[in-house]
Design goal:
Length: about 150
């Protein structure tokens, strides 16, 4: 009843033991070294079977980690900009000051007081309007702060 043929082996490298970390390390949209953001308007617009799978995965995730003291996260859309290209409001939002140096050139200083040596090539994250569709069909702008918990 047993076949004498050898058991077929999968071709290619063995599967990773850290598939999610491997995927997220490629920096897909909405990720950084600490967080993965899923825009609610996009996940709620996924096909219904995907939404059901996502709901089940998130429910298991939250059940497993509900015991932790979770903060309230505020997500702010940002984009990379050169320091030299920022206006006064953008500089203020990132805590950067600009002053006239002894030689008459502009000197940019970051929040910690350090001088930006090459503002024409130094990139920083600056808040921007959200280009993704919002719940309810609108676009752009920042989402309202979530309602405080009842009680």
């Amino acid at each position: 009843m047993f076949t004498p043929d050898p058991i077929p082996r999968p071709s290619g490298p063995p599967e990773s033991s850290t598939p999610l970390a491997d995927y997220l390390s490629r920096n897909p949209p909405g990720t950084d070294e600490d967080h993965a953001v899923l825009p609610r308007s996009l996940v709620e617009s996924m096909p219904l079977p995907w939404q059901r799978h996502m709901r089940d995965l998130l429910a298991e995730f939250h059940q497993a980690f509900a015991h932790l003291n979770w903060p309230v996260y505020r997500v702010v859309p940002t984009r990379w900009e050169l320091v030299a290209d920022l206006d006064e409001q953008q500089l203020a939002e990132i805590g950067c000051t600009v002053e006239l140096g002894d030689g008459g050139e502009l000197e940019y200083r970051l929040r910690d007081g350090s001088r930006v040596e090459d503002p024409e090539h130094h990139r920083v994250l600056v808040p921007c309007p959200d280009p993704l569709p919002r719940r309810g069909g609108g676009r752009g702008g920042r989402a309202a702060d979530p309602a405080p918990p009842p009680g």
